[in-house]
Amino acid sequence: MKLSRLTIALYVGLIFASGAVLGVFGHSLYAVSTVKSNPTPEAVRKKKLAEMQSRMKLSDEQVAKINSIYDETRAKFHEVRERYRPEMDALEKAQRDKVRSVLSPEQQAEYERMLKEREEQQKQNGGRGSGPGI
């Protein structure tokens, strides 16, 4: 059986259209499944406490004491972080200066733009970045 050119063109068009539909569907499925939200520390804490409360049958008094312990620990972490921040900032500055010394003037300009973009991303993410070495 010999197929006409019109029939072949219709088949090719149908195959192309079905590929496009599958591509759009696959992309939307992938995009939806890979988007993850970063929970806030408070949300993590509430979830952790709820699990402890349900699994260990904690009393309200125990929950209050554990909350107090978490508050105290958070304050100590913050204190340690602030104490070492100047040293960490100095290390990061030294790293960036060394990287700049390796780059050409054009590359340095692009490096500065890249650093600015990262800084903006960190502000949008609540200050949590990938760290100075990355």
What can you tell me about this protein's structure?
This protein is mostly helical. The chain folds into 2 domains: about 1-35; about 35-125, no CATH class. It is about 80% helix and about 0% strand. The protein is built from 4 helices and no strands. Mean pLDDT is about 85; it is low at about 130-134.
Termini, distance in Å? 63 Å
Put simply, the count of helices is 4
Form type: flat
Low-confidence stretches: 130-134
The string of secondary-structure elements, in order, is HHHH
Sheet with most strands: none
User: What share of the residues lie within helices?
Assistant: over 70%
Rounded radius of gyration (Å): 27 Å
Percent strand equals under 5%
* Structural class label: mainly alpha
Report the average pLDDT across residues: 87
Please provide the count of β strands: 0
List the domain count as a whole number. Answer: 2
Task: Provide a compact summary of the structure.
This protein is mainly α and 134 residues long. Helices cover 81% and strands 0% of the residues.
List the helices and strands and how they pair.
Elements: H1 5-34, H2 41-56, H3 60-102, H4 105-124
